Fold this protein.
Amino acid sequence: MRERPSARRSALSVDVLTMTPHGARLALLLNRAADPRAKERWELPWDVPRPGEALDDAAMRAARAPLGRAPSTIEQVGAIGDGRRHPGRAGVSIGFLALVPAGAPAPVGGASAWFPVDELPPLPPRQRALVDAGLTALRTRLEISPVAFRLLPAAFTLSQLQEIYELLLGRRLHKASFRRALQAAWLVEPTDEWRSEGRGRPAQLFRFAPRKRRGGRRGVRFDAMI
Amino acid sequence: MRERPSARRSALSVDVLTMTPHGARLALLLNRAADPRAKERWELPWDVPRPGEALDDAAMRAARAPLGRAPSTIEQVGAIGDGRRHPGRAGVSIGFLALVPAGAPAPVGGASAWFPVDELPPLPPRQRALVDAGLTALRTRLEISPVAFRLLPAAFTLSQLQEIYELLLGRRLHKASFRRALQAAWLVEPTDEWRSEGRGRPAQLFRFAPRKRRGGRRGVRFDAMI
DNA sequence: TGACATTAGTAGCAAAAGGTGAATAATTCG
DNA sequence: CGAATTATTCACCTTTTGCTACTAATGTCA
């Protein structure tokens, strides 16, 4: 079982937002609160970096414990150091987004569970703010970082990929346009496998394999601003 | 004169990347190193947050001291907490990007100076990494956050705005296309002032005034990824 | 004063990119 | 086998973008 961070006040914590698709929704991994006096019963996995340890490594440790394995990516999303309460009473908490491919196993033991992000239980205020920042970052990075691919196994169907985008964007996308744009960007390559998912025509499996940038000259886009 | 942070080892520092356009280049504000034994003679302005003080407020203090006034924006760019050296020997350093409109006065006293970002003197390794992260963040946020407008005074010409974009993107943009996209996004509104800048036709001044979003339905763009 | 250089701002067109619905393909189920 | 279901592609049309060229307003200098 994992070692729980000491209850002593610490200067710094790393708090992990472990996300995975669960059906048509995004799920977040929460730990049962260690402190029985805590008003909130659940909290983000968190830990205190060891002296000299890189923040990413500390976050990876915190993510690994309840998950039972390493997430496919971990990236920083922001630091909060104001008066809002943190379960470890850390002065500053740094949020990390950990992405787990769909089909993740249940968390280790009964001390952790997945929650749909739109039905989260009450959280310590600072962690609640980190969750909001992380969800915003996830959507912001969707078009510039391969986050969607990190929420899928190495081989996936284009319909699965589109579902991830729809889940993260919160709206339906047109299938033909989605595929045309994807192919034009040389981001995926087909494998020679096909998956039959019950009824209907089997789908070809693709893998994430970004190719060289073709002439990337582009004007400026102002329509994504504010 | 500003109070220099204590030389004691601290758990945390906020380090500020103060940027302003200088001619056709971006300039960064550096402080002369406090420690005479330091190999690098210059360093990013930095400070240690007071207990209970929000990180943004601490960063604003650190930015204000050498600049003599508040920057137009300050935003977090990332935290580094690995083995790389920091002048205050902080365990973790959080980088903040502070933007200053063009035409900034010279820094306060002789303890600070502007340097073009592509000709920076040697910096403490951790601060060097923060600078790189900050420049990347600046370019990444260019299309989703009004950073370019924060590098200009409240009233500006469209040519000035285009120059900022060209400076940040490192490439020339087409005038007609730039203006057409800008007008279509309802981001600026004309004032009734005109500026005569020596030779050539006088330019109308505009101000940043984002209007309501017109139907924002859009497909997914994959061409900005990786 | 008038030709010319210089900077600002616009039009218009062709090409590329994007949105949409329908057609076609390959399966499972009954 | 035929209906239902899912995948994949096509064809058509609209919007966006890149580009060249043009007009406008000012300073310079002979």
About this structure: Strands of chain B lie at 12-22, 25-32, 42-43, 46-47, 73-80, 92-99, 112-116, 155-157, 188-195, 203-208. Chain B touches chain A through 48 residues (CB under 8 Å). Residues 174, 176-177, 180-181, 184, 196, 198-202 of chain B lie near DNA strand D (CB under 10 Å from a C1'). The first helix of chain B runs from residue 55 to 67.
